[in-house]
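Retry 2 of 3 after timeout on previous attempt. Resubmitting structure tokens to design endpoint.
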């Protein structure tokens, strides 16, 4: 069984607001993307990593990462992951898809998501956490509440997400191109495949705005103190 990872770094990071790639921002002395890459590299038995990079930052990313395959991202996240899938060797069986903007993911949590797919218990898994806040559904474009959702059955979704490669490719190819899918698990769901949620660590935050870096530094400092 052959396992590959796709590290998704194809976004422009406009919400970060600095004019530079958020993935090159320093986190505990090294770029965000490097921390994400090195964590993936620690997965036992991983055969390779494909990095899908936004064209303007490609050379910067290449300068700070180790051995891997490279491809440019597309106009959407779905397009970028598809470009990554095209770079996988034919013998790959399992695909781990991870957002480069989540540099604090833990290897043990990746393995927890990987095991059900490896053992044939699931075709797709996603890290995530049960929602703890009250969630309101509002009207499109307006902040008027339409419903309060029952949170006992709601999860927030993280990455990595782990897939049987054929299942993920089938989902990408069969889903309508005019519909927006926020992640690969939603593509697989649309194709009628069940997705298993796997409990993640709350530390696995996504770097979106500058304050997220401050929070990430605090998490790392706490980990050093408590080791």
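Retry 2 succeeded. Sequence:
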């Amino acid at each position: 069984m052959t396992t590959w990872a796709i590290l998704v770094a194809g976004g422009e990071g406009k919400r970060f607001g600095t004019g530079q790639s958020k993935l090159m921002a320093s986190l505990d002395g090294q770029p965000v993307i490097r921390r994400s890459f090195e964590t993936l590299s620690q997965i036992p038995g991983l055969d390779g990593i494909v990095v899908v990079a936004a064209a303007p930052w490609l050379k910067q990313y290449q300068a700070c990462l180790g051995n891997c395959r490279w491809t440019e991202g597309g106009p959407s996240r779905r397009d970028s992951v598809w470009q990554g899938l095209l770079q996988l060797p034919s013998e790959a069986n399992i695909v781990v898809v991870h957002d480069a903007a989540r540099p604090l993911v833990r290897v043990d949590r990746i393995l927890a998501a990987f095991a059900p797919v490896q053992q044939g218990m699931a075709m797709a898994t996603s890290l995530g956490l049960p929602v703890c806040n009250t969630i309101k559904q509002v009207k499109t474009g307006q902040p008027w509440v339409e419903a309060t959702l029952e949170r006992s059955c709601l999860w927030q979704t993280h990455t990595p997400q782990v897939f049987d490669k054929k299942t993920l490719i089938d989902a990408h190819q069969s889903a309508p191109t005019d519909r927006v899918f926020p992640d690969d698990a939603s593509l697989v769901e649309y194709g009628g495949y069940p997705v298993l949620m796997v409990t993640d660590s709350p530390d696995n935050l996504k770097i979106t705005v500058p304050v997220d870096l401050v929070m990430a530094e605090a998490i790392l400092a706490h980990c050093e103190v408590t080791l």
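Attempt log closed. The chain has one domain: 3-226.
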